[in-house]
Write a structure and sequence with these properties.
This protein is an alpha+beta fold. Helix content is 64%, strand content 8%. It starts with a helix and ends in a 10-residue tail after the last helix.
């Protein structure tokens, strides 16, 4: 699997664990009364900041300050008994300013209106930072327990995604077919023996891939839960989930952008494509027996037909070793004769791409042909 696809799948798994862990943590926090304690700490901070502001910023006397703080404490007390206590900033400011207006002058209220938002903002920032830190730690702990219970191992998951490529079995099957063709075309017993050994290895690899089972998840078999690697992978999943689902959703969005960009860049335009896009791509793999005094089988691939010049660009894969060397022109001529019927005999020329020729140079072509 492509590394971006692996990262996307892993991110989706972590998001799922993080979301579920956050729900469980929220219920635990509610049951334990942690929100109420956090609200109480915030209230204490606000009361202290308001007291300092009444003393230092506007210089109210003790009686006036006590009246303002008393009304503020009554407002906060009405919120403490709620399951999820919360005090809106506008309600808080209106309570303070309206009480201050009753015991002081409008000038004092104007000054408080200017300085109090910054003081209350300090308490908001402190309470938010502490709440996020505590919640993140709790989510990480819950996610670790879930990962250990359900066998959600990030390290094993990455390994599985990298090794269980959906196209891997198909590629091995193609290699087996190619080796079979080579074995049938090979007349040298020594070369045939080496081909049979390679073919046997590919068949064993194919059998292993087809019977491989996924080792991640609650239904996986044969998991060593006492292994240090397994424990590390599950704990790592929990720690990553502790960063929070919003964080991983942002990472997922970035990965999707990277994937779209990569796919856009990987799309290449054929060299001979005309401005009317009349050129068409034909992907075929017919085995062609080469004549003109040269023996061997070759598979033309990545065939690109240009209707304007009536020419074909292609790559060539050799199936078996020919009895003698020859020139690329001989092979191109033979391929043209074999492929011409597919194009109603309107084929002007066959051009074998240089990279394909270079791969076979040295033991398929004569030196003057490459």
């Amino acid at each position: 699997m492509d590394y971006l696809d692996t990262a996307i799948v892993l991110t989706l798994v972590i998001i799922t664990v993080a979301e579920f862990s956050a729900l469980v943590t929220d219920r635990l926090i509610l049951m334990a009364g942690s929100r109420t304690r956090g609200f109480e700490e915030w209230c204490q901070c606000v009361v202290e900041e308001v007291r300092l502001s009444l003393r230092d910023d506007v210089e109210l006397n003790v009686t006036q300050s006590a009246s303002v703080l008393e009304q503020l404490n009554m407002l906060m007390a009405s919120e403490r008994d709620k399951p999820q206590p919360y005090l809106n900033r506008s309600v808080l400011m209106n309570n303070i300013l309206s009480t201050a207006l009753k015991v002081s002058t409008p000038k004092v209220v104007t000054t408080l209106e200017q300085v109090l938002p910054d003081r209350v903002g300090k308490c908001d920032h402190r309470a938010t930072s502490q709440f996020r830190l505590r919640t993140g730690i709790k989510v990480a702990c819950v996610a670790t327990v879930i990962s250990l219970a359900l066998n959600i191992n990030s390290v094993s998951l990455i390994s599985e995604l990298e090794s269980n490529d959906a196209n891997k079995v198909a590629r091995i099957q193609t290699q087996v077919e190619s080796l079979n063709d080579k074995l049938q075309a090979e007349s040298d017993p020594t070369n045939a023996g080496s081909i049979m050994i390679e073919l046997r290895n590919r068949l064993n690899q194919l059998s292993t891939e087809e019977t491989k089972t996924f080792s991640v998840g609650p239904l996986a078999q044969g998991i060593n839960r006492m292994s240090i690697d397994w424990i590390f992978g599950c704990v790592l999943t929990g720690l990553l989930a502790g960063l929070g689902a919003p964080f991983w959703r942002r990472q997922l969005s970035r990965l999707m952008v990277l994937k779209d960009t990569k796919e856009a860049v990987s799309v290449t335009t054929p060299a001979n494509q005309n401005r009317y896009d009349e050129k068409e791509e034909i992907q075929t793999d017919p085995a062609v027996t080469v004549s003109s005094g040269v023996t061997g089988q070759f598979a033309p691939t990545n065939i690109s037909w240009d209707p304007l010049t009536k020419q074909i660009d292609l790559d060539v894969i050799a199936l078996g070793k020919p009895e003698s060397t020859y020139t690329p022109d001989e092979l191109a001529h033979t391929l043209r004769e074999k492929l011409a019927p597919l194009y109603s005999k309107k084929l002007a020329a066959v051009n074998i791409r240089p990279d394909s020729l270079n791969k076979m140079a040295g033991y398929f072509f004569t030196s003057n042909g490459v």
